[in-house]
Q: What sequence folds into this?
DNA sequence: AAATTTTTGATGCACGTGCCTCAAAATGTG
DNA sequence: CACATTTTGAGGCACGTGCATCAAAAATTT
């Protein structure tokens, strides 16, 4: 019930507390033999450094920054809200959280922002930005300077270990599985609406979607992805066209994380009223849409979990601990009107 | 970026650190006027006690006990596994977790067990047991002795504030919604299999199930609940009978948290092979069953979340903090083979 | 006003770790 | 061997809070 302390360690290893300190904090000028002795004692006693006491001694405080895109609709607001909540919840652990807005389409400015952060005043950053060489480099240099970094929701291929977000392939496959099972018709076409197919996230969702549809529902065909580019007029035009030209549409998959515009347009078209429609992310809008039937199902990643997981990961990296993968795995959630 | 300390508080309130200490820890012999002064300063500075430092000073360690039923199959094992994991993950916070097995059907022995716990060596208990007057009383006395307590998965009506578990009504409703949508037939009967309808959990699931089925799928009828009482032979007999006598069964809802026995029996009956089947809880068995199609869907409460939520709640109570409800809300998860 | 009680202040140690200084011991070099 | 260099030890202060003790001040009673 009592954890061994550095004092116990010193006694067990037959060295002084000063030497234990040197080994624990990786300082210079200790003979390999002594290092080994201490490490052996650590193992034998099952010593775990008391981080609370260490932080107290160092007056350490954590400041974590969430770098989020400047543009975005409700889902982004949800994230910001949960970051504010987390700030409160983690206050007892001496953790501060901040939001910084970055221009997602300007890798140069993102890199510049990351370069401006010093480990003096920022312990870690959660970055939501599409991958690009500049950003990847900036993240790398950030880590070299001793600032923890995790990709947040948007993935950076190079650092998949500490990634915080869902498996987008699984998300797409889940959407397909539900669409397939919800559609009563024997055969037909599925309309797929995305914001853009440039991002890895969209591509992976589409891959997962097609794979599952082909495997489990071969009588359903997915139409080519419509890209709205976040432009409302364009969205209206291409969606209306697609509906007019494809009378055999029996289901709709809104792949983008902001479902508001597409769903609003769809509910204005009488042809799509009774079609099975699936969207992404829980927001005030999608909640309402689930209730009144404009959406039949929502595939979501829990915004609160995302934020808290990012915080825990950043803290673990800062503390030089390993994270428990299992605990930090973000689930692909399925929302119906019954389980909100 | 720097939190105010008790020193700052003392200065701001115009009193000594000793008096601040008396007020913060509710000791006797302080004039009301002085108490008010200190409280005003707390508010003004936004003072938050540094729990890490306090625990260090008190050499406080947390020991939490999970009181789980003695009998149970895979789901219980999952819980135990996650408790072991949590033990590791929370070690940095000086938290120890233990499992104690109780006889769920003997309220007297449960009460005796709870009575044996003293706040000296146990900080809190998560209790998984059906409600009964004896247990309720024992929990009450436990709390009076300064031991935190939360109902765990099985609910205790009287203390719904700190309850850790899912909304079973919503779980039942979700099962109904999915069964309804997954069944391609126009009309038919749904078989419902439970371990026992004595527990509140089962009753609430059934209530939610019937409500949603009646509301959204009026052409489907739910048959009376079959109760297996955890007896394999009995289960085989009543399930087989029910299938023989109801050729119009088109879906099956296995309501109990241990789906193994019923599903095994069902897959031995040719009549039920292609029927839509929904079960509860993620276990090695249900995962396999999802993959090979014996189960179409699983409604689950995340065992890891349950455990960690219980630990955080118990810690918050012990620290005399309020918990963030939002964060601790356990979701009704929907699992398909695509989102495991 | 004196005696008593209540309230407050001053001070110091403890918790486990980080970090510093200075001296002592061990090791290596010519 | 003497000397320089590397490695280790001893000790102490700091972090923010809890918990003592003892004396001083203030309020209350007689």
A:
């Amino acid at each position: 019930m009592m954890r061994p302390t550095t004092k116990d360690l010193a006694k067990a290893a037959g060295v002084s507390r000063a030497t234990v300190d040197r080994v624990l904090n990786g300082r210079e000028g200790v003979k390999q033999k002594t290092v080994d002795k201490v490490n052996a004692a650590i193992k034998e006693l099952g010593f775990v450094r008391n981080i609370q006491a260490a932080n107290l001694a160092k007056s350490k405080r954590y400041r974590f920054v969430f770098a989020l895109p400047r543009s975005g609709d409700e889902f982004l607001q949800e994230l910001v809200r949960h970051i504010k909540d987390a700030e409160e919840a983690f206050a007892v652990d001496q953790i501060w959280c901040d939001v910084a807005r970055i221009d997602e389409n300007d890798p140069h400015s993102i890199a510049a922002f990351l370069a401006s952060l010093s480990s003096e005043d920022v312990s870690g950053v959660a970055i939501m930005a599409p991958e690009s060489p500049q950003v990847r480099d900036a993240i790398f240099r950030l880590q070299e300077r001793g600032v923890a970094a995790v990709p947040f929701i948007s993935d950076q291929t190079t650092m998949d270990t500490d990634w915080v977000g869902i498996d987008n392939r699984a998300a797409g496959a889940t959407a397909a599985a539900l669409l397939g099972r919800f559609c009563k018709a024997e055969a037909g076409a599925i309309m797929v609406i995305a914001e853009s197919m440039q991002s890895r996230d969209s591509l992976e969702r589409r891959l997962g979607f097609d794979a599952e549809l082909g495997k489990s529902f071969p009588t359903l065909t997915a139409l080519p992805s419509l890209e709205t580019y976040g432009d409302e007029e364009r969205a209206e035009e291409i969606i209306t066209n697609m509906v007019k030209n494809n009378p055999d549409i029996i289901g709709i998959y809104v792949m983008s994380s902001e479902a508001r515009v597409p769903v609003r347009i769809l509910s204005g078209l009488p042809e799509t009223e009774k079609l099975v429609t699936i969207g992404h992310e829980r927001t005030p809008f999608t909640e309402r849409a689930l209730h009144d039937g404009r959406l039949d199902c929502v595939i979501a990643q829990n915004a609160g979990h995302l934020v808290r997981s990012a915080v825990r990961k950043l803290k673990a990296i800062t503390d030089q601990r390993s994270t428990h993968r299992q605990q930090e795995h973000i689930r692909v959630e399925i929302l119906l009107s019954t389980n909100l």
The first strand of chain B starts at residue 62 and ends at 69. The domain at 168-300 of chain B is CATH 3.40.50.2300 (Rossmann fold). The mean pLDDT of chain B is 90.
